[in-house]
C-alpha cells in the first residue's frame, strides 16, 4: 500500500488477499481487452467469478458499489465474453459477476456483493 491515502490499486491488492483467505483462487488480475479491464478473475469452487473492485473514500458521489452502473456492467460482460473465448479451460464453468466495494477511507472490511448483476 502507498504511504498516503489508499487508491484503487491498493483496494485491488487488498481484495485479492482477502478473497484468497476465503478460498477464492485468483486466476487472473487486471485482464485487459478492447472493452476495458476486469480487476480480478477467480474460482469459487467450480464457479468462475469476474470481480469488479471499487473504492470510494466517501459517499459524496454515491457509494462504491453504486458506481458499477449499467454501462460498466455492459463493458464487464463483453470483456468476460472475450476472456471466456480465449480460455477454453473454463468453457464448462458457471460464471458470476461480483462486486467488492470499499466504502471507507481505510481498507478494512469490504462489502462483497455476490452475483451483483447478471447477463
Description:
It is a single chain. The chain has a single domain (8-117), classed as Trna Endonuclease, Chain: A, domain 1, CATH 3.40.1350. The radius of gyration is 14 Å and the shape is globular. 25% of the residues lie in helices and 36% in strands. The protein has a 5-stranded mixed beta sheet with strand order 1-2-3-4-5, with helices on both faces. It has helices at 8-20, 70-86, and strands at 25-33, 36-44, 47-55, 94-102, 111-117. The termini are far apart. It is an alpha+beta fold and 119 residues long. It contains 2 helices and 5 strands. GO terms for molecular function: nucleic acid binding. InterPro entries: Restrct_endonuc-II-like, tRNA_endonuc-like_dom_sf, UPF0102_YraN-like. This is UPF0102 protein EOE65_12575.
List keywords for this structure.
119 residues, alpha+beta, Trna Endonuclease, Chain: A, domain 1, 2 helices, 5 strands, 25% helix
